[in-house]
Amino acid sequence: MKILDRYILITFLRTFFSVFIIFMFIFVLQGVWLYISDLAGKDLDVSVTAKFILYFMPKLIPLVVPLTVLLSSIMVFGNFAENYEFAAMKSTGISLQRAMRSLSVFIVALGIGCFFFANNVIPWGEYNFYNIRRNIAKVKPALAIAEGQFNEIGNINIKVDKKSGDRGQFLEGVLIHQKSVARIGNYKVIVSEKGELKSSPDSNILQLELINGNYYEEIVNKDVRKNANKPHAQSYFDNYIINVDLEILNSEDLDSKNHSGRYNMLDVDQLNYTIDSLKNKRKEDYKSLSKTLYNRSTFSALNQNIEPIKKDTVFTDTFLDLFITNNKIQILNQAINSINSTRQIIDSNKTTLQTKNIWINKHTIALHDKFVLAFACVILFFVGAPLGALIRKGGLGLPMVIAIVLFLTYHFFGIFAKNSAEKGSFSPIIGSWLSTAVMLPLSIYLTTRATNDKGVFQFDAIIIPLKRLFTPKSKLQLSESDTKSYNYYKKYSIEELVRIIKKQEDFDLDKKPKEIALHNLLNRNIPLEGLKSEGLDITDKLITAKAILKDYKDYSKTSLVSFSIGAVLLALHFVFKNNKLPEIAEASLSLSIVASVFFIIYGVVDAVVYSKFYKTIEQVGKQINPILLILSLPLYPIKYVFLRNQIDRDFYLSCLQNIK
User: Which residue in 16, 324, 349, 524 is deepest, having the highest Cβ count within 10 Å?
Assistant: First the structure.
């Protein structure tokens, strides 16, 4: 290894491990906040807490390592560029790719190491993390209940005023809302003065013994009239025991984004085997469902005891006319019963099959995530290294901001894609690889720009066409000689320009000087009323058209804003819906509908004003067709740009023709 390669590698490793430790510490603190906030002050042993954190740390690697690679590469190469070390390398003929060679080997090795870590260590950590939570809940059941707040455990919500005892097992002031599988709501309430938590390390059952309390239950009758008297049951007890299955406590609470974390405990071979088994089981379920539907249809017994009327001629009537009335009734009743039975079977199996598909998708995503981590390290390095060389800034300031923005983009793309893929919106393979695929073109682009020693972005190629698109084309297309005349006329006063216009009009001379002079006046944003007072002949229709033009621009701009807000809110509705935020999704949809209503109203108004404008300047042929108006609503932004430029130019040409 050459001295330069050793120097770059050592500099990168020093920064890499420093940043890695900092980020790992930050994410561990976040884990403490998420998972152990309810355990603080509950008399947990230090060794138990240390194991809890140790088993939690492996699952942080897919977050910490890519972010560390990205930030470290930006910092190191930004520092090289800022201190002119890259300039020194380039002066000796060393390119960016040559400088990145040793680090590229290290990053590829790191990616391979991350794959084996994700395949072996992370499943080990997930397995032990799940079991230590399960053991804590069994040995110290009081940890599942915090004082002064409702805690959901299984099918009960429990609140206690005070806890005591060496394990917090003695409770005072117990209030319980017990759920019912038959109906939704708090219909059962239990209140007791004292309680005690009992459990055994060998049992999955948490036993809650209540002492000296009352039991209340609201009775809901099928007859609505009987519910008017608010019937209920009330009883007093000295002792009352409630059993809670601790498996419920340790299932979904492990990871709020998943129904269960069990698939995170498997390596590649186990995942492939499980996915294959689940797909075979799904095929068997579909076959079983189809067989059940066929048997319920009673198709095989359809021709028994039902004989059609024999006809010698070609039959042209309806099918039922082949049978007598009694058989018709029998056939119709059998068809109705078969349809109702089929619908019930399909509805009952729909949720089950959807859940199984989600379960298969989660296993598929977990399998591909192990490979994605390895590729993400490599791709993010080729994003960060050239980006650092381009921004020429080291340290923890600007590189930190850029790295966090890029990583959040990468991370949120991954979250949204995986959540959508789990529900079957698209392939789980795409959901796993989408965020990495988004970063791949960026890495190629930045590496190419840095190699050619260009800026991060060349905005002129984008900005200039946009300026041409959005700038109103109301000005005359002047030749080179006319442009010189136009610039010369800029020195003239308003009175002098008015004299030029009137002189050309009175003596019927060349119209070009008049057009250039009037062009100069209009570009000075002088009101038409002001030009009229200077002696120019300006019709009232032209002044009215100018006012209508201003109204059209206001209405069309409001329509464009309403359209944009409605489109953004509609997109957010689907994003929130796919990420299990139904309340925010419904609010976004409602606001999107409101914005769309405003857009339609103002769109119709600006179309009316548009037609009124052309009627005023006596160009009736350019009025908007109602059918085209409706068809163009989805493409309103394009229509807005096109019509705004057109109406500005038509008004300008009308001024040239009518002002004398």
Answer: 16
